[in-house]
Amino acid sequence: MAAPALSRLLADLLPESRGTEGEAPLDLPRDTAQPPRLISAAIIEGHELRARRIVDPPVVGFAAFLDGTQETQVSRYLAGGIPIVVGTVGAVIRDRRNQRMFTWRHLVERRVYAPRAHLSADAWRRLAALTPPPVDTTDGEADEPLAHPLALREAAVHRVQEDRQRAEQALAEEWCRRETRALLIDGGISGTDAVARAVCAVGVVKSHRTLYAQGEALTTILSLARAHRSSVFRVTSPKRTNVASWYLRLRDPRGHEPMWGLVRVEIAEPEGDADVAARADLVSRWILAEAAPLSLPDARWDKMVYGVRDCEVFLRATR
Amino acid sequence: MTDLQLDNSHALGRVVATERKPNTPHEFHFWTALDSPVGIGTIVRVDGAHPVNGQIPRIYGVVVEGFSYTDLQTPLHDVLGHDGTPDGASLAATERAEIRLYTAAVLRQLPEEPLQPVPMGRVYLAGAEDVAIALRMDSYLAEGARTAIPIGVYRAGGTDAPIYLDADFLLGPEAAHLNITGVSGLATKTSAIEWILQSIFTHFPAQKGSVAAVCFNVKGPDLCFLDQPGIVDAADRALYERCGVSPEPFEKVQYFAPFKPDGFSLNTLRSNEALLHNVSPLTWGLREVLQYAEVLLNKDDVDAKADALIDFIRERVVDRDFSDQLLGNKHYLVRSFADLEGWFRDLLSAMENKGNEGWRTHHVATIRKVRNRLSNISTRCSGLVTDDGAVSDLPFGSFQDRTVYVIDVASLEEDAQDLIFARVVTKLREHLEKRDLGVNHVVVFVDELNKYAPSDAQETYVRKMLLDLAERGRYLGLVLFSAQQFRSQVHRRVVGNSGTALYGRMDGDELATPGYAVLSPAVKTKLATLEKGQLMVRHPHFTQPIFVRFPRPAVMRGRDGAEQYPQAVDVDLDAAVLRSLRTLDPALTLGWVRDAIGIREDDEVIRARNATLRERPADVKKYFQSQLRPVVAAQPATRPAGVPVRSAPADDPYAF
């Protein structure tokens, strides 16, 4: 259902609510969602984190690109500033054939997000008639004291974000199940075990709120020159699958801030005696080959490959 | 070519509209795949998504503009992206997202009411049926009302649809006339006219009567070989077949050409003996010319007084038994320029002898002036105007259906060309008014229209005639097909009255003139680069110009004809007479002609030859000889005995 139609429907379902006009989307830049931090990581290529030059020229290796988007908008307010939010998530894999992009698979989902604990039973029952059903942003904890309206809105944003990640992961899993060609995923790959272990999946992380280095290693990373990468290290997380990762500088950082043109790459952790260095060099060459065309006018063009920008434009055009 | 391009059941585009570029009832925008067969001039169909008054709207349009762009914000971004090395650009893993966006002008909307902006919808390549509907040809292609004349084939992305003109709007009475413009030297204008005449002769509906064409050959051998077969290749044959026209030269063609100043050699490039069977001389006498004196005498020459005298001569002298007291009541029968010259001589002598300054209200100076100007006509138009009054003319009154009458005026002086044009068109109009021409419709083809009906020159008789023809000819069945290089230099009322307009490849300067402001830049570009055999067509039924291909005419090109049938070399009078008379009796020999002519004067021989050609007798020898005055047999003269005038005196000392 289109967003305006869903808003009209909500107005009918909740006549006691108040509509909004021209309110900006709630979504925050992903970079600001968590505090900056430094984490040390185990080096799996050699013994210390070093800068390594990518000697061989860039080569085209990716067959497709995956990205997702979300939009979270308050549609109505109930008494007490309780937001009734409409969230739209989308994800797409764009398949590159003969240098042009075509849609391989596309998902769009629009749902209502509401704090059930702060709604009357009757209001929730009316919302429950929607298809797809509404998402409870309070996990159904009844009779909670009324929270700060901003906290309620942030809770909705997080739920929408989770749905976007789920949509992206669903597409990535499907690709890894059906294809052997390399897929560039915008973001990390460790969220799903099937993807984190797939040889064909390569995650490219543009956000550096968490840096996997400390001390001299951090200096080495931030000093990487263009077409240089760091040694490969392991990224571990209690709820996620371990992956191999390294930093790669896509563009010459002279005259820019230290993280300009810097991305972090994630691939499945090589098994056994696999040559992790050779794999990191090859994947780095693939990514460097995607440095043109530029993703301008996107503000993150220094880190964003054109295939991902194409996904974003596609999702904006189709939501 | 992909299957998609060949199959017009697949959508090839989608209508798009934005606030900055909205659709209107007369224009819409759509995008296509990069490899779609759409181009400028392509006809498309839009199927709307939502019914209006219970009917899904269908909109037909022709592409008039195209745009292509990528998501690149500034060219500098591309430079940065490839480190300033153009070679690197071709190695990019991904090509930027790119669009082919087209603007189409609406040809027709169904339903036609309410007239709304073009809705969003899918865009399809128009098939042959769509083309017929889009151009409103369905009304005159219907059985029973068929007045369709094919003008060429519209081709785009696998669609191959004949384009038809409506005979009611091409040859009257609803609208009429056709004008074609284009740069010279591309064999487009003349070829197109020849092709269209072939098409008209094949498809002109029987219920509308008969049709003939009168073509003025104004330059080179362009129209001199219309009855000879030309080269038609396989591609042209396919076009002929598609249009239902047989790739054959014109079956019935009659040529007319004046003589050269010598009075016995035809002044045409079609003078080869092998082709003379349908070439007739075009000669006029005093009576024919005097009617159109205005054509040859400019306003400076002919003031009101001179005009009055010319009227007097025309009404009271020419072809009348004329006598006057001043002339001693001598009876004059003035039928030729020679007769008129004699009449003037006698009149002026008589006035001088009597010391009269005037005669019948005409001053002697006016009489001298008119004598000078009229006598000069036979010199300026020698070969066309005969001193002896002999007339050889087009067969007014017995024109044949589906026949082309070509008048070769290419080698004539401008005055003579004007005279021929004025008289022929006037005679055609007179006979059509009386319905006794022999056919119901006549197409008059005039090339180099900017010379005969210029937009910025002083008024001439010929221009007035062309204006009259353009404005009133359609009611009579007198239709003007005209051609010129620069349409902007032709009088607006002449081209404006042409219901059908064709455009070949155009000159850039010409396209920059205001008359072409209605065309989009892309259409102008296409016109400036149009290849041979392509035309842009405007017709009253078509709301937008349409591009068509037409086949090369199945007649011999002028240049080829001139090589294959070289012009006859100038010969002496005996040979010229033989050449002419052999078209009537191939058994004649040069020896016989020489014997028949004997020692007679050239004028007498030419007169006899012309009379024979006019009469076309069964026994050519007998008739030709009968036209020559009998020669009195020579008799030996007896020497008379000498008689002295006066006897000399006996004592004359100097006498012998």
Oligomer: heterodimer
Helical residues, percent of chain B: 25-40%
Number of strands of chain A: 15
> Cα distance, first to last residue of chain B?
117 Å
Mean model confidence by pLDDT of chain A: 90
| Approximate helicity band of chain A | 25-40%
Structural category of chain B is alpha/beta
Widest sheet, order of strands of chain B:
12-11-17-10-18-19-9-20-21-22
Q: Biggest sheet of chain A, in brief?
A: 11 strands, mixed
Helical stretch tally of chain B: 24
What is the terminal-to-terminal distance of chain A?
10 Å
Tell me, rounded to a whole number, the average pLDDT of chain B: 88
Rg of chain B, please?
34 Å
> Helical stretch count of chain A?
7
Describe the protein in words.
The complex is a heterodimer of chains A (319) and B (656). Helices cover 28% and strands 30% of the residues of chain A. With 319 residues, chain A is of the alpha/beta class. Chain B is built from 24 helices and 22 strands. In chain B, helix 12 (337-354) packs antiparallel against helix 13. At the A-B interface, helix 7 of A face helix 2 of B.
Question: What features would you highlight for this structure?
Answer:
heterodimer; A: 319 residues; alpha/beta; 11-stranded mixed beta sheet; two-stranded parallel ribbon; 15 strands; elongated; B: 656 residues; 10-stranded mixed beta sheet; 6-stranded antiparallel beta barrel; 22 strands; disordered N terminus
Short description:
Chain A has 319 residues and is of the alpha/beta class. In chain A, 28% of the residues lie in helices and 30% in strands.
Layout of strands and helices, then pairs:
The complex is a heterodimer of chains A (319) and B (656).
Chain A lengths: L2 H11 L4 E2 L17 E2 L3 E2 L7 E3 L8 E17 L3 E16 L2 E15 L6 H8 L6 E2 L12 H30 L3 E5 L6 H4 L4 E5 L4 E2 L3 H8 L5 E3 L2 E5 L2 E10 L12 E7 L7 H14 L16 H13 L1
Chain B lengths: L2 H4 L4 E6 L10 E6 L10 E6 L9 E13 L4 H7 L4 H4 L8 E13 L10 E5 L2 H7 L3 H4 L6 E9 L2 E8 H4 L7 E4 L7 H15 L7 E7 L16 H10 L8 E6 L21 E3 L4 H5 L2 H4 L7 H14 L3 E2 L9 E2 L3 H18 L3 E2 L2 E2 H17 L22 E6 L5 H21 L6 E6 L2 H4 L8 H16 L1 E7 L7 H5 L3 E4 L4 H4 L9 H8 L5 E5 L7 E4 L8 H7 L8 H10 L7 H8 L4 H14 L4 H7 L30
Parallel strand pairs in B: 9-19, 9-20, 10-17, 10-18, 11-12, 11-17, 18-19
Antiparallel strand pairs in B: 1-2, 1-6, 2-5, 3-4, 3-6, 4-5, 7-8, 13-14, 15-16, 20-21, 21-22
